[in-house]
UniProtKB/TrEMBL annotation, chains A, B:
<comment type="subunit">
    <text>Homodimer.</text>
</comment>
<dbReference type="InterPro" id="IPR010987">
    <property type="entry name" value="Glutathione-S-Trfase_C-like"/>
</dbReference>
<dbReference type="InterPro" id="IPR036249">
    <property type="entry name" value="Thioredoxin-like_sf"/>
</dbReference>
<dbReference type="InterPro" id="IPR004045">
    <property type="entry name" value="Glutathione_S-Trfase_N"/>
</dbReference>
<dbReference type="Pfam" id="PF13409">
    <property type="entry name" value="GST_N_2"/>
</dbReference>
<feature type="domain" description="GST N-terminal">
    <location>
        <begin position="1"/>
        <end position="80"/>
    </location>
</feature>
<dbReference type="InterPro" id="IPR040079">
    <property type="entry name" value="Glutathione_S-Trfase"/>
</dbReference>
<dbReference type="GO" id="GO:0006749">
    <property type="term" value="P:glutathione metabolic process"/>
</dbReference>
<protein>
    <submittedName>
        <fullName>Glutathione S-transferase family protein</fullName>
    </submittedName>
</protein>
<dbReference type="GO" id="GO:0004364">
    <property type="term" value="F:glutathione transferase activity"/>
</dbReference>
<feature type="domain" description="GST C-terminal">
    <location>
        <begin position="85"/>
        <end position="215"/>
    </location>
</feature>
<dbReference type="InterPro" id="IPR036282">
    <property type="entry name" value="Glutathione-S-Trfase_C_sf"/>
</dbReference>
Length: 223, 223
């Protein structure tokens, strides 16, 4: 059985969990708080980041969400998520990198730092200016996602792909942390409502991070 | 013919160029300075990052160095660089992500900011403290690379892979910017000396960024 080292608000772990859910791969969750920099965890992953997956039976270790997703895409045929022509696959990977780097760096990382890590580690309140700026950037990103969904059924084209999964993972963490204003993004809202109803997404939405509660609409498919 | 948008000290563009060189794919260079945020470039890549590749004949556009490398790995058989078992490929991708994210974020990005962008954009001198910290972190990273090369012929295992190419790309930019102390890293030094002699690497090493000259040893295979 695979073990997944993660914490409930790690967007990269959510991306992996959504892919494993769609592909029907079973795994156990192991709670890991990377900011604690546990020696045993650093021995497992010198980069010190979640997610990490370990196969209990063989001790095989997988590190980095994209390396993990590519691994299961190569080894589990069910529900291909990086499929199509080489150019189509490049477009999926471009968008995954865009969400994992730009959306995460501009929005999710500052929200996690201000609203979660500061409370857990420094016991300090969030900086309202940084929260406001992250929410402003979320708006710009959502405009781009609206634009994509105005031209395509899914983020990267005609079928659901890892680009949708990466986007949903990051959006869901930003939404938990109160960073998303849903009032003027109909296309993304419709797309995300559909995602929220998927069986692979339900367990993620019901989990909580102890120190911070999500807004009332967070778990509702109709919001 | 493919066109590659880049500037001489972009490590992600170097990674792509090394892969294209080993695979024998021809391309033209187009100079792009992403910090200028040209409208035409942002239309091409909303993320505003180099490298970007455009096929002049078909207008196909490839964005993000990893998506570009996976594309050419899938479409050009010569010199496979993400090969082996699924677990071996996961190890290659883990290390590529490690160099592209940790080595870049800890070392190359601050060096580029202090020694190149500050001079070009703000006409300000570098902050000596930030340079010193980046060099200290370079030392830690090189210790880890020494450790890998003590156990393996190449970064990710028995054969040269994209992990070596990503590492060489980032090390070369850090070295150009004076960030590497070669005195106590024999395994990495030997590995890098071999890399420097490869025909795919020679053109990169002879290019210069106008505002800043590399140290005397930079281009020498024997340093
Ligand atoms: N490229 C990595 C990034 C993972 C990552 O940044 N995870 C965060 C948690 S959301 C982390 O572990 N941060 C701790 C740290 O950077 O020290 C992946 O895709 O797995
Ligand atoms: N994930 C991207 C990262 C590329 C990247 O960060 N490029 C830098 C130049 S070395 C850049 O364009 N920075 C400009 C910016 O971030 O605005 C890739 O692998 O291509």
């Amino acid at each position: 059985m695979w073990q997944l080292y993660q914490f409930p608000l790690c967007p990269f772990s959510r991306k992996v969990r959504l892919l494993l859910g769609e592909k029907g791969v079973a795994y156990d969750l192991i709670r890991e708080s990377p900011w604690q920099m546990r020696d045993e965890f650093l021995d497992l992953n010198p980069a010190g980041t979640t997610p990490v997956m370990v196969d209990e039976d063989t001790n095989a270790t997988l590190i980095d969400s994209q390396a993990i997703c590519e691994y299961f895409e190569e080894t589990v045929e069910r529900f291909p998520l990086i499929s199509g022509t080489a150019a189509g696959r490049a477009e999926i990977r471009r968008l995954v990198a865009f969400f994992d780097q730009s959306f995460y760096g501009d929005i999710v990382a500052p929200l996690l730092h201000e609203r979660m890590k500061k409370r857990l580690v420094e016991r300090a309140p969030p900086d309202a200016r940084i929260l406001r700026e992250a929410m402003k950037r979320a708006n710009t990103h959502m405009d781009y996602m609206d634009y994509l969904l105005d031209h395509r059924s899914w983020m990267a084209g005609g079928t659901m792909s890892l680009a949708d999964i990466a986007a949903a993972a990051h959006v869901s963490v930003a939404d938990y942390l109160g960073g998303i204003d849903w009032s003027s993004h109909e296309p993304v809202k419709r797309w995300y409502a559909g995602f929220k109803s998927r069986p692979s997404f339900r367990p993620l939405l019901s989990e909580r991070m102890e120190v911070i509660a999500p807004p009332a609409h967070y778990e509702k498919p109709d919001f």
